[in-house]
Amino acid sequence: MAKNLVVLGGGESGVGAAILGKEKGMNVFLSDYGTIADNYRQQLDEEGIEWEDGRHSMDRILAADEVVKSPGIAPSAPVMKAIAEKGIPVISEIEFAGRYTDAKMVCITGSNGKTTTTLLTYHILKNAGLNVGLAGNVGRSLALQVARDHHDVYVIELSSFQLENMYAFRANIAVILNITPDHLDRYEYKMQNYINAKFRILNNLTPQDAFIYWQDDPVITRQLERIRTEAQMFPFAEHHEPGSRAWVDDEASLIIDTPETSLNMPRAELSLNGLHNLYNSMAAALSACILDIDKEEIREALGDFEGVEHRLEYVATVNGVRYINDSKATNVNSCWYALESMPENTVLILGGKDKGNDYSEILPLVKEKVKAIVCMGKDNAKLLDFFGKEVPEIYDTHSIEEAVAKCASVACPGDTVLLSPCCASFDLFNSYEDRGHKFKEQVGKLKA
């Protein structure tokens, strides 16, 4: 008898999982409590997959043999509690797709930098002529690609939410860039729960597999004292340390040293600037070396990669003021990285949906570099209270139009306006992309 597969969530990952389930002969039902976008409705209809939105039909859902859950649905949601009570197995789309492919998997996680590192790794492998797919938090659904568009290698960006429901899945190369507090509202405000979710990327690694990580991350270092992995270790650091496989030498050259390939190139030739991007470049280069990509091709790709939209993205200079879109900075540590690469006299836009943030981490950089903070959110009380006495000027705004106008009035020629909000976007925007696009729109209007 055909297996009953229920897919919860009708976005990119859910629709991909539904199509793969149908391809494998399962009875598939997709349910979304919100509204499914028109393009995904059309896709489901064309595939003849039954779906609903705006509700959950619990009788249908609880008749499932297995549930594939969208990463955005919290385990505490009523539908998930009912499924758990019934004892129905719940897996992620990545876990589901992994059952049906023997492609090599390069899996990347971290609190910050994972999108840049994923896209850079994909860029290197694609330029080297590999048949490579891009999946996870970026690119197309892994399940859809496994169903319809086979690749030899997949580069997958994995959030902690996706890792929660991965069990038998195995990465060939697992990367943890860094771990700092994020999404603590999802993890009962316990940092260890979040760390445990991130470290699930090491599940099932064998001695043939590789683990790439930042050697100086105190959280990763502590966790590695508590757990064991059979994988080969490839740590990276700013300067050479015992065991380092990537570092910068005294001549300011990036050194990559693996059994497969060794290379060095002047740090100045990397297309991405800043210390955080040095680490991203190291992780991507290590992955490429382990996959035995030609060193000249790695060098070339590290030198010509164009950065990620909404991540320290230069927008324009208006009246002598530079505007930078870092809308992807949805946590405090991301904002720290952004401020670290900013000059003095920065006007900083902060605010949005606070996820239990501790702003003390960025305070030294704020004092050193920020001349004014423009708060942008429905409720800015926490920000106003924390930073009120720490900066010369602070303003309370409640829309992107108001925030950008205030920045333009406060900033002088030679200053930088940085949107690096520290918070999720859902109070005023649909997503961090929506926030970034609207910021760029408003900056465009200043030029007009």
TrEMBL record:
Keyword Flavoprotein set for record: no
GO cellular component entries: cytoplasm
Catalytic activities: UDP-N-acetyl-alpha-D-muramoyl-L-alanine + D-glutamate + ATP = UDP-N-acetyl-alpha-D-muramoyl-L-alanyl-D-glutamate + ADP + phosphate + H(+)
Ranges for domain Mur ligase C-terminal: 310-422
Biological process terms in GO annotation: cell division; cell wall organization; peptidoglycan biosynthetic process; regulation of cell shape
Protein localization: Cytoplasm
Domain Mur ligase central residues, every copy: 108-287
Enzyme Commission number: 6.3.2.9
Residues that bind ATP: G110, S111, N112, G113, K114, T115, T116
Gene Ontology terms, MF aspect: ATP binding; UDP-N-acetylmuramoylalanine-D-glutamate ligase activity
Keyword terms, alphabetized: ATP-binding, Cell cycle, Cell division, Cell shape, Cell wall biogenesis/degradation, Cytoplasm, Ligase, Nucleotide-binding, Peptidoglycan synthesis
Keyword flag Cell cycle: yes
Pathway participation: Cell wall biogenesis; peptidoglycan biosynthesis
Membership in a protein family: Belongs to the MurCDEF family.
Xref: HAMAP family: MurD
Function: Cell wall formation. Catalyzes the addition of glutamate to the nucleotide precursor UDP-N-acetylmuramoyl-L-alanine (UMA).
Protein name per its UniProtKB record: UDP-N-acetylmuramoylalanine--D-glutamate ligase
Source organism of the structure: Duncaniella dubosii
